[in-house]
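Q: What structure does this chain adopt?
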Amino acid sequence: MRKLVVSMMMSLDGCCEGSGGNSMALPMDDFFNAHNLERLRHADTLLLGATTYKAFQGYWPAVADNPELSPAVAADPRVADVHRETGRRNNEIQKVVVSDSLTADDTAPWEDTTVLVRRGEVQQAVADLKDRPGQDILTFGSRKVWNGLLAAGLVDELHLMVGAAVLGGGTPAFAAGQVPPLRLLDTRRGDGSDNVLLRYQVIHPGTRPQGAPVAG
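A:
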């Protein structure tokens, strides 16, 4: 069975956005970007909420063609290859978008790689996706979507990059309610980064725990 992997960044005080929904308040450094690309290489489906999808749609197609349009690349041209490949993989990967408002007219230039799913149908759609052969199903951002799927027992791994920042308020990464037990699989730091990646297996009834945690 395929895995549903949630990859997200959060602050030390547990927020995935700062005040006013400002995700750029988080320290999204080269380690963060490299990890996102690594996860894309292991996935063949992106599962996104409408807000994250629209943000990606407005950014990555242009960066795939010209990575210098990325502020990170403009600041450091050495990261151009990471941003170019990330943009191209986001262009090519199959995207499942959870929305009650978007229509096919809203999906250009990704109309050939986007499937729209209504909110009331997302749990069944994800269960069906997991039963098909393939690589990982990957979620970035999309807090409301993945929190609902976590509560429903459909998330397999959480990849939490904890940024070296205290926001003092904003959007909590986890919704109110009970979170299933988690097993730490590994921790990692990137060279020169103050961020830490924590990878957890979500333990549901009948889940077979993976190996002992390894510090990176």
